[in-house]
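Sequence in, structure out. Go.
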Amino acid sequence: MIEVFAPYLLIFLVWNDLDAEETMSVSQDLFISEQVCMAAGTERLEMIEANRQLRLEKFKAEQIKTEAAKFFCVRQPRDIQKYSPLLDDN
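Output:
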């Protein structure tokens, strides 16, 4: 068996400033390097912005103007922490 560790987590957030709590959407994907993670986040952000611009031209809705998106690439820890309170000496 070959085990592959993908150390970078892309966290992508999309929301509308008019009602951020109700409209927040979060997605997560794993990537093999920070460079690949950043490229994927940037590409996705550009696609979302292009789609938003098209909808803004087509519908002229104020709500579309307040949409926002942001992403982060976070390095994942390599070690696994095991929780076993019954075996803990403390």
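Check: Helices lie at 20-23, 34-59, 62-65. The radius of gyration is 19 Å.
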